[in-house]
Amino acid sequence: MAKQAKTDRQAVIESIRTRQKSEERRRGLMIVGVCATVALLIVLAAAYRPLKNWWDLRQFRDVAIDKIGAPASVCEKPTTKKASGNQQHVPDGQAIFYDDAPPAFGEHYGTPDPMTRKLYTKGDRPDLGVLVHNLEHGYTVVWYDETVAADSSQMSELRGLADKFAGTSNYRFKFKAVPWLESDGKAFPKGEHIAFTHWSIGGADQDPSGDKQVGVWQYCSEISGDALNTFMIDYPYMDSPEPNGM
Question: Which of 108, 195, 197, 208 is the most exposed, having the fewest neighbouring CB atoms within 10 Å of its CB?
Answer without folding.
Answer: 208
